[in-house]
From TrEMBL:
Source species, domain of life: Bacteria
Species name: Bradyrhizobium sediminis
InterPro entries tied to this protein: CobZ, FAD-dep_OxRdtase_2_FAD-bd, FAD-oxidoreductase_2, FAD/NAD-bd_sf, Succ_DH/fumarate_Rdtase_cat_sf
Protein name: FAD-dependent tricarballylate dehydrogenase TcuA
Cofactor(s) needed: FAD
Residue ranges of every copy of the FAD-dependent oxidoreductase 2 FAD-binding domain listed in the record: 9-436
Any one Gene Ontology molecular-function term assigned to this protein's record: oxidoreductase activity
């Protein structure tokens, strides 16, 4: 049993990668630590359970990485996907710190494996967790427990007592009552508000009813809202988020990574009217996969269809749901209640515009369309080999970018611009500092690990002082 009558040095709210990195870092710095995970034990870990990899800068190839990925290249990739909407000082600080994270997480029990294949193209840039995100999470929990970190599950926080930027205590639901937990410092690592459909609808309107939530149903943004209401400065556009195209047959919540589609570059994407609406070959997939959720969200009824043929059926990583198959384009259209004549025309025009080249999905190849709007800039191949296939897709929201503003010490900043006295943040709840928009594969875990480690270390030092 956890003794809630004592005053802890550090209270960590959240139970995913960022929270555990903070808890371990604080404990290794000598602090007493209590972790409050709002989910039941089986569902602990927030979105970390569904992850596969992390993007870190490194100067040379390793056993699991095929070559160097310099700080400058990482920065250029981040600038590209965010279109410059990032805090450069914080982002460069995170990238610099990420070089140490590859070894640090191994010291906490996490193991790496060689990169996966398919359309990921991440063998040089991203490290993959052996056993996936849940295995990574279990390793961190085991280390935290061995170090003496106290952990409570089903720990719903009802209120935070904050006085002029100073955290004093948290009220916790216990059975039918509530208990007050005191701590010298607070680390908020409780995720975004993506599972709160009503909050999403404030910015997206009724379209949000058609969004699917890839991650945990427990990230409802309650801690974020409390902090913002109590004087913490916000950062980020509330409509920006990590949103990918996922299978329309996926569950409303917690479908995870196995519902994501990596097949876009091998075919075309049409809306409910049978029309293409964006360049499927704009850039390497890990730099573009996270724009497709927002693209689909902007289409009528928030639905789209990835269409391809038998020639590429086995070229990408399979998902939980098999594609819908048909012997002709007209038959395929009928299975989705699309206008067959329109879909046939769309594909005929696409095929006529394809200019042959040497296909290679790992590089920006020379297979393109000509005279077509929108174009397909790379990886354009004629769709002409039956049977034909399609996946129905909807916007799959992973996490939102509205969050708490922080400095390089992961300390929250108040609305007046001053640093909070004893409050820190890590992970998705502050990701908007780095991600103003867009996404690059694995960077969410980078943000969580780097700022979690910093937040825990700084919180422990703050508690000592």
């Amino acid at each position: 049993m956890v003794d809630l009558s004592r005053k802890f040095d550090c209270l960590v709210i959240g139970g995913g990668n960022a929270a555990l990195c903070a808890a371990i870092s604080a404990r290794r710095s000598g602090a007493s630590v209590l972790v409050l995970e709002g989910a039941p034990k089986f569902y602990r870990g927030g979105n970390t359970r569904h992850t596969r990899n992390m993007r870190c800068a490194h100067d040379a190839a390793t056993d699991i990485l095929t070559g160097p990925y310099t700080e400058q290249e990482f920065w250029e990739d981040l600038q590209l996907v965010t279109e410059g909407q990032t805090d450069e000082e914080l982002a460069r600080h995170m990238i610099r710190e990420s070089k140490d994270i590859l070894g640090w997480v191994v010291e906490q029990g996490v193991r790496w494996q060689p990169s996966l294949g398919g359309t990921l193209s991440l063998g040089r840039t991203n490290s993959f967790f052996l056993g996936g995100g849940r295995a990574m999470l279990n390793a961190l929990y085991l280390t935290a427990e061995r170090l003496g970190v106290d952990i409570l599950y089903d720990a719903e926080v009802l209120d935070l007592d904050i006085d002029n930027g100073m955290f004093l205590s948290a009220d916790l639901k216990q059975g039918d009552g509530r208990v007050t937990v005191r701590a010298a410092t607070l680390v908020a690592a409780a995720g975004g508000f993506e599972a709160n459909i009503e909050w999403l609808k404030q910015y997206w309107g009724e379209a949000a009813d058609n969004f699917l939530i890839r991650g945990t149903p427990y990230n409802r943004g309650s801690i974020l809202k409390m902090l913002l209401n109590k004087g913490v400065q916000e950062v980020g556009d509330p409509t920006q988020c990590h949103a990918v195209a996922i299978d329309a047959r996926a569950p409303k919540f917690d479908g995870g990574i196995i519902t994501r589609h990596d097949s876009v570059v091998f075919g075309i994407v049409v809306n409910k009217h049978g029309l293409r609406f964006y360049d499927e070959g704009e850039d390497i997939w890990p730099k573009r996969y996270a724009i497709w959720g927002r693209l689909v969200a902007a289409q009528p009824d928030q639905i789209a269809y990835i269409v391809f043929d038998a020639s590429v059926r086995n070229s990408f990583m399979p998902t939980l749901f098999p594609p819908i198959e048909a012997g002709s384009i007209a038959e395929l259209a009928g299975k989705f209640e699309l206008d067959a004549a329109v879909l046939e025309k769309t594909i005929a025009e696409f095929n006529a515009a394809v200019r042959p080249g040497t296909f290679d999905h790992t590089i920006l190849d020379d297979c393109r369309t000509e005279g077509l709007t929108p174009p397909k800039t790379h990886w354009a191949q004629r769709i002409e080999t039956p049977p034909y296939y399609a996946y129905p897709v909807r916007p799959g929201i992973t996490f939102t970018y509205l969050g708490t503003r922080v400095n390089k010490q992961a300390r929250m900043l108040m609305k007046d611009g001053k640093p909070a006295a004893n409050m820190f943040a890590a992970g998705e709840i502050m990701a908007g500092n780095v991600l103003g928009k867009g996404y690059a594969a694995g960077i969410g875990m980078t943000i969580g690990s780097v700022f979690g480690r910093i937040a825990g270390r700084e919180a422990a030092q703050n508690a000592r002082n």
